[in-house]
């Protein structure tokens, strides 16, 4: 049986093939890894295939691979991200109610603070797109409060038991740390 390290190497090989502009070989390697790889590799391969399909607007294919990931790996650490990708696809296909429901699920249950913040931001933008400005404002406020709470927790962990307020509570841009956390979300993209 092949080792986990070998499969991880194959995931790196897929990225190299993509950088070398050899997408057919990279896609084939991901399909092999999604079928033969162990948990932690196969689910990662399925998510990459779904994201690649999403990036070329092949929404049907992306949703199929996301569904496969969820069925085959119900305990995967990648489920929150897979749900986020699915919600983005639903949003792009104008299935706003379904997207909003999935974003709410992510915001309520994800252990990843950045995923929760991204989900709240997407809910707010969906409200804006549909003209529900008051609801959008509430969602942006929820996002701000969550980011602020996360920043406070992070500062407390960093300082230890005797916190002392300092300029280090501000990011290098001079913005409050919670703003910096939220801005990180804007820099993320599909892949």
Explain what you see.
- Helix content is 74%, strand content 0%.
- It has helices at 4-19, 23-36, 42-55, 59-72, 79-92, 96-109, 113-129, 133-159, 177-187.
- Helix 2 (23-36) packs antiparallel against helix 3 (42-55) and helix 3 packs parallel to helix 5 (79-92).
Assembly type of the shown chains? single chain
Give the proportion of residues in helices: over 70%
Low-confidence stretches: 165-191
Question: Quick one: overall form?
Answer: globular
Q: Provide the structure class.
A: mainly alpha
The proportion of residues in beta strands is under 5%
Mean pLDDT: 87
Helix run count: 9
State Rg.
19 Å
Q: Give a count of the beta strands, DSSP E runs of length 2 or more.
A: 0
For the biggest sheet, the summary is: none
Query: What's the end-to-end separation, in Å?
Result: 30 Å
- The secondary-structure element order is HHHHHHHHH
Brief description of this entry?
By secondary structure, the protein is mainly α.
